Write a sequence for this structure.
């Protein structure tokens, strides 16, 4: 009798076909994509938290079809490499402090021109005035802007008291981009460029004794371990951008794109709205931990304004006509 093996073979081939079918249908119904999203700063600050909420919203609203996973503190790519990683498609999405890329396109540094925009309302206005140019500059590099996050106003951290720019002479200064490097030079300080994730090391080894940054950096890098003074200079409010690689974006269907854009709009709104109160909390935490959080002296402020004027002129020169048009739109 031959029926038994015959039946077995039939059953076997049936179950193999079923398995292939099942696999194929999973691929169609459940084309689950996972997007790793590198970010440069601590997971605890309000900006990184916004990235995480954004990622969770997309994951949830797409029922996991597009899962976004944030990797903070430069853990997946060093902060300085994130933009290049997105641009080249090594990762589909990433978040990066954009002022650091001002040497590639001056428009990336418009919000770090000292004293051009010094509070949330002005920073928003400057963002709106520069947004078309910012989007175009990113697009030219193969990236789509999803949203921006605003950092709190930048103040001066220092080990020793600073009453005028004179007091910064020879002081070692942690810079985070070309603008802060230039600022240090103009103050007579000695700059070293360091990403935020390496601040503790820079201050504990004496490479840095001062820096310009926000309370968001001050709190999550525990600056009270290294400095005694924080001067609320409010020199500028830098932004970070969340960008997607253009090819990765093109591969999404319309419904998914809409979910991503809606989540991005919500994230942008909430992070900009949260900035001022969150920063008050950060400044209080710094004070509670022993940092003297104060307004700068009139002299220090005037000295910094004079340096700001030099740097604005330099920026205008590097940004050319497009830069001038953005500033005109901002001032209107
Ligand atoms: N300071 C930055 C960028 C944003 C901020 O507030 C830094 O210190 O790296």
């Amino acid at each position: 009798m031959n029926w038994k093996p015959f039946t077995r073979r039939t059953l076997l081939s049936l179950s193999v076909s079923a398995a292939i079918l099942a696999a194929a249908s999973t691929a169609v119904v459940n084309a689950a994509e996972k997007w790793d999203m590198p970010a440069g700063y601590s997971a605890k600050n309000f900006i990184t938290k916004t990235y995480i909420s954004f990622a969770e919203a997309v994951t949830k609203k797409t029922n996991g079809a597009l899962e976004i996973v944030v990797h903070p503190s430069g853990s997946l790519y060093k902060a300085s490499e994130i933009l290049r990683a997105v641009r080249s498609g090594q990762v589909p999405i990433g978040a990066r402090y954009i002022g650091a890329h001002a040497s590639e396109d001056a428009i990336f540094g418009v919000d770090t021109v000292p004293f051009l925009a010094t509070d949330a309302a002005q920073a928003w206005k400057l963002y709106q005035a520069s947004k078309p140019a910012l989007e175009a500059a990113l697009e030219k590099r193969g990236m789509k802007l999803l949203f921006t996050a605003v950092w709190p106003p930048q103040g001066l951290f220092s080990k020793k008291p600073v009453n005028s720019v004179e007091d910064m002479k020879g002081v070692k200064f942690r810079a985070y981009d070309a603008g802060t490097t230039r600022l240090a030079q103009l103050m007579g300080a000695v700059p070293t460029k360091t990403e935020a994730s390496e601040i503790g090391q820079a201050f504990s080894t004496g490479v840095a004794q001062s820096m310009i940054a926000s309370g968001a950096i001050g709190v999550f890098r525990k600056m009270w371990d290294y400095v005694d003074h924080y001067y609320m200079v409010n020199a500028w409010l830098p932004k970070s951008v969340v960008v997607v690689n253009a090819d990765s974006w093109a591969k999404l269907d319309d419904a998914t794109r809409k979910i991503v854009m809606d989540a991005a709009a919500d994230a942008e709104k909430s992070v900009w709205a949260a900035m001022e109160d969150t920063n008050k909390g950060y400044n209080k935490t710094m004070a509670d931990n022993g940092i003297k959080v104060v307004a700068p002296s009139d002299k220090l402020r005037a000295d910094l304004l004079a340096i700001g004027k030099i740097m604005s002129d330099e920026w205008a020169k590097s940004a050319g006509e497009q830069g001038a048009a953005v500033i005109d739109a901002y001032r209107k």
